Amino acid sequence: MDYDPRGEPHNLAHDPTTSLVVPRPIGWITTISPAGVINLAPYSFFNMIASHPPFVMFASNSRKHSQLHAQSGGEFVFNLATYDLRTEMNISGGDYPAEVSEPEVAKLAMAPSRKVKPPRVARSPIALECVYSQTVNLVSSNGKKHTYEMVVGEVVNVHIDDAVIVDGMIDMARIRPIGRLGYRGDYTVVDNVFFMARV
User: Taking the CB of residue 99, how many other CB atoms lie within 10 A of it?
Assistant: First the structure.
């Protein structure tokens, strides 16, 4: 099948768009509101987009708390979502008022960051402290502004739990990161790693 997602029907039972690029890493983002409330939310439109220094991005179809706080406070933290933290990650993704702190709702202990104000999830084995860089507006080929906006941050500190480092490398089998699949409620876990030499 072929279809133009800008206007042609796909004629499937469910919209396949979010199933086309999978698995997607989950950007579990910590921010602080201007009132001092700690916000924590998962974003499946997330990825690292550069190295040396690293930059990361996250996006959603509306200006949610994380975007507003990252822009107003100039900082955010990416926390790696793992299989052991799946329930807490899911709870933090609920639709809560601005005055509600998701870590409290999910009963998650937070730990101070080294270089930025928003804390990290204490049990997450990897956290990237970021300073806000820019927000990129997505514009369609017809010139119409898209509802999605991409928030970009520069990584200024990397936290790695020493317990997941084996022989100088991060052991993914110990971390078991999770990712989003296409349809509502579908996730995957990285628990089967294979190696291929580059040609």
Answer: 8
